[in-house]
């Protein structure tokens, strides 16, 4: 049987300290790991979001792929995160003066959601199920 017992998503970032601070503010908790080269946030049981500096992954990629920094500021992924307190999440992000890309609204796929971006241009969505489709 195929399966995974732990899932890590890693975003490549220009400035690890800046990005770690950003995510600490939107998640309202400290990184569980914050060492040179990696910061981690436990999002749910067995699900971790990591932040790795561009320079760290470039050592691994070498000349096999373009350097991640060539895409900084260009949306390269979307983190779609569900919360049961979507109104509270929206108020928190607005209070942090983060530019909202799409305001909190009911979506035609059955979610109430809003969109914004992190300092590297990764798209973040906070959503709550409102209808079972």
Care to describe what's here?
With 133 residues, the protein is α/β, with parallel strands linked by helices. The chain is 23% helix and 38% strand. It contains 3 helices and 8 strands; from the N terminus they run E-H-E-E-E-H-E-H-E-E-E. It has helices spanning 16-27, 54-61, 86-95, and strands at residues 7-13, 33-35, 38-44, 47-53, 78-82, 100-106, 111-117, 123-129. It has a 4-stranded mixed β-sheet with strand order 1-4-3-2. Strands 5-8-7-6 form a 4-stranded mixed β-sheet, covered by helices on one side. A hairpin with a 2-residue loop joins strand 2 (33-35) and strand 3 (38-44). The chain is globular, with a radius of gyration of 16 Å. The mean pLDDT is 92.
List the helices and strands and how they pair.
Layout: E1 7-13, H1 16-27, E2 33-35, E3 38-44, E4 47-53, H2 54-61, E5 78-82, H3 86-95, E6 100-106, E7 111-117, E8 123-129
Parallel strand pairs: 1-4, 5-8
Antiparallel strand pairs: 2-3, 3-4, 6-7, 7-8
């Amino acid at each position: 049987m195929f399966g995974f017992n732990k899932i890590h998503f890693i975003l490549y970032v220009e400035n690890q300290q800046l990005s770690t601070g950003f995510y600490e503010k939107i998640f309202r908790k400290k990184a569980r790991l914050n060492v040179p080269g990696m910061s981690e946030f436990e999002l749910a049981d067995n699900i971790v979001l990591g932040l790795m500096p561009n320079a760290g992954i470039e050592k691994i990629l070498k000349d096999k792929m373009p350097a991640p920094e060539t895409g900084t500021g260009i949306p390269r992924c979307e983190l779609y995160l569900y919360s049961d307190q979507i109104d509270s999440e929206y108020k928190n992000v607005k209070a942090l003066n983060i530019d909202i890309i799409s305001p909190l609204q009911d979506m035609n796929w059955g979610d109430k959601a809003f969109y914004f971006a992190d300092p590297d241009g990764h798209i973040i969505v906070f959503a709550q199920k409102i209808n079972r489709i």
